[in-house]
Automatic annotation (TrEMBL):
Lineage of source species: Eukaryota, Metazoa, Ecdysozoa, Arthropoda, Hexapoda
GO-annotated biological processes: axon guidance; dendrite self-avoidance; homophilic cell adhesion via plasma membrane adhesion molecules
Name of this chain's protein: Ig-like domain-containing protein
MF GO annotations: cell-cell adhesion mediator activity
Record domain Ig-like: where: 4-84
Top-level taxon of the source organism: Eukaryota
GO cellular component, one term: plasma membrane
Pfam families named among the record's database cross-references: Ig_3 (PF13927)
PROSITE patterns on file: IG_LIKE
Keyword set, alphabetical order: Immunoglobulin domain
Amino acid sequence: MNPPEIIKKPQNQGVRVGGVASFYCAARGDPPPSIVWRKNGKKVSGTQSRYTVLEQTGGVSILRIEPVRAGRDDAPYECVAENGPLDIPLKRLKGRGNCCYELLG
């Protein structure tokens, strides 16, 4: 068993309120890791109305938020690679005022 290793980190970006935020994460390990997105420490589900989680094999995931809303989306988001007891948070999304959102490392 190998712990997850980040091979593609989400890129910093600015997003206007009402726009679309898309974040890409990839990790590898043995067994191959899955990617879990969290908002304020709680799992983000693709069944939530404005969130889409696209999962691909091999530890790849995309989180899409549409539309980005002030107040509702102004929270830390985490991309976490999981494959056992060692889980690795990748990046956080943090609000900046009422205008824009930026992915922070």
